[in-house]
Amino acid sequence: MSMSSNDIRALLIRTLDALPAHTDELRELDAALGDGDLGITVQKGSAAVVKALAALPDDAAISDMLRSAGQAFSTANPSTFAALIGGGLLAAAKTMTDKHELGKADALTIGRAVAARIVERGKSKVGDKTVLDALVPSLDVLEASNGDARELLAAMIATARQQIDATAALQSQKGRAAWIQERSVGHADPGATAYWRFLEALQAGL
User: Fold this and answer.
1) How far apart are CA 179 and CA 189, in angstroms?
2) Does domain 2-205 match CATH 1.25.40.340?
3) I need a surface site. Which of 2, 21, 93, 102 has the fewest CB within 10 A?
4) pTM
């Protein structure tokens, strides 16, 4: 099953329009572990990406959509999370040159490219209590599972949620959250939570 770039763009706009509803939740989670700016990063970043996607021509290439999204998200509210996600999307854009539709294998390629860039730029790994702890296991589920888009997303959402709950018990190893050391134990990672909320909004958007 694949979707055209126009359908993907419409789905992403619906998804990102829904994400600002979680601004307060993400701000509170981030305030417990960092500087509390993740809520506004996701809110402003989502709005900027919607605007950038809407400005693209009809039947834009998937690479152009990813590039525009990456640039918009990384500059809307400068933060480490914005830079990492934006940089990941720019890296993913290079894997989708001249593509105008998206299937499961393409979605997996994009996700792996984003994760690889976050590992590289964030000097982080699974287990450090970051977005990677939800992102990488959910991509493993996507790779191993079959079914339609809704079923795949449901499995990815369940895995992301499970990993967020599991890693809440860990001490944060990266970013501002690492500064508070053992006080980070018991708190869900805000970046991983933002990714989980994105998957939920994507499922609802379908």
Assistant:
1) 14
2) yes
3) 21
4) 0.92
